[in-house]
Write a structure and sequence with these properties.
Elements lengths: L1 E6 L3 H7 L6 H7 L11 H15 L7 H13 L3 E6 L4 H16 L4 E4 L2 H4 L9 H20 L12 E4 L8 H10 L3 E5 L6 E4 L8 H6 L1 H9 L4 H4 L2 H8 L3 E4 L2 E4 L1 H13 E7 H8 L2 H11 L2 H6 L1 E4 L5 E4 L7 E7 L2 E8 L2 H10 L5 H7 E7 L5
Parallel strand pairs: 1-2, 1-4, 2-3, 4-5, 9-13
Antiparallel strand pairs: 5-6, 7-8, 9-14, 10-11, 11-12, 12-13
């Protein structure tokens, strides 16, 4: 089943206004309201919801998102999983909720996903450019990657993803276009006020993955944000700047939205971490360990869910997925993952923990070398 990621705008309200001018005071009051103030406008929100939902009922032409989604479903002739993405405004969240309910009531052609807690993208708005660049666009990229990243083909491209860019905030279209192209996805939209569906086929763009491996430390620093960038700026950072991967505001630098898109693509293809020579040798000679690392441990959410802080006085992070005897001891140093011990079973792990040794982070860092594993090469 295809996943259709749909950016949501406010055309459902502007279209309704052509026939129901009585809702204009509510629309005008909410037009520039941040989604963070949602609870402050409940009366106006519910008034708009009631009128617009009734007006749009059984009418999949009521908004750009509804019309295009129906056209996309007819084009592929199969049920769709539809994921709605809203900007950081009250009106856009309300539009997404109304559209979700209308699509759900339209029949079995759509399974619709919209959770305001994660699908209203903080910082994605037009009033604050700095917040848009440093927060909104990067959060948008991360959310799309979360939706699409679980199912990859043998080359690490998204599988079965279609971007519907008919509605929504037009400033994001260039970024979504790039994201679609480098991840091998199709795009679709309805041209202006016509009924014509235009599809853009997937044309995967090749990326110089070596750059991400070589400059991994600098990229991880930028993902966390660098407060005194000018004092740290060197030829390696300048190379990233030349590739459009650095966003600066004063003396603060961070990974740009484009940088986030490209880095996420790299992470979908490769698992990069640091390991001691002993750990690297153990991984290379053990097919089961390779499988565990590539299919489970490499996923940050799965890794965190199966990690416990263990030990007596000197606690250590120990990964245990529960389906095999292996235990993995690791650290996060400056945003980078270090694997410094792998135990064959729980008894070996317990013996290590009982010794209660204090970790020397600096020694682990110096003794470790970068290791890159291709996720498509699962044993």
């Amino acid at each position: 089943m295809k996943k259709v990621i749909t950016t949501v705008g406010t055309s459902i309200f502007t279209n309704c206004l052509k026939q129901r001018e009585d809702i204009r005071p509510h629309f005008d009051a909410l037009e520039n309201a941040s989604a963070s103030n949602w609870n402050s406008y409940q009366n106006r929100i519910e008034m708009l919801r009631s009128v617009v939902s009734e007006w749009a009922r059984d009418n999949l032409q009521a908004s750009a998102e509804l019309k295009s989604t129906k056209k996309i479903q007819a084009y592929y002739n199969e049920p769709l999983d539809v994921f709605l993405i809203a900007t950081d405004t009250v009106l856009c969240r309300l539009a997404a909720e109304i559209i979700r309910d209308l699509l759900v009531s339209a029949g079995n052609d759509f399974t619709v996903f919209f959770n305001p807690q994660i699908d209203v993208i903080t910082g994605l708005q037009v009033t604050d450019k700095r917040s848009l660049i440093s927060e909104g666009l990067c959060r948008l990229v991360d959310r799309i990657n979360q939706i699409a990243g679980g199912d990859l083909d043998t080359e690490g491209y998204y599988r079965g993803i279609v971007f519907n860019i008919t509605g929504g905030f037009k400033a994001v279209i260039p970024y979504i276009t790039i994201m679609a192209q480098i991840n091998g996805c199709e795009m679709a939209y309805i041209y202006e006020d016509t009924d014509t569906l235009i599809t853009i086929p997937k044309v995967p763009i090749k990326i110089d993955f070596d750059l991400f491996q070589e400059l991994a430390s600098e990229i991880n620093m930028l993902r966390q944000g660098i407060d005194r960038y000018r004092s740290m700026r060197n030829e390696r950072f300048i190379r990233l700047e030349e590739h459009g991967m650095v966003e600066m505001s004063g003396d603060v630098a961070m990974l740009s939205p484009l940088g986030t898109i490209f880095h996420n693509r790299y992470q979908n293809r490769f698992f990069t971490f640091y390991a001691t020579e002993e750990v690297s040798t153990k991984i290379e000679t053990n097919t089961e360990l390779k499988r565990i690392l590539l299919t489970k441990f490499s996923n940050p959410e799965l890794r965190q869910a199966k990690t416990e802080l263990k030990g007596i006085n000197h606690k250590k992070y120990i990964y245990d997925d529960g389906n095999n005897p292996y235990r993995i001891a690791y650290l996060i140093i400056n945003g980078e993952l270090y694997v410094y011990r792998i135990f064959d079973d729980e008894q070996e792990q317990q013996k290590y923990l009982m010794a209660d040794e204090r970790l020397d982070v600096e020694i682990i860092r110096k003794q470790s070398k970068q290791k890159q594993m291709e996720k498509t090469n699962v044993p």
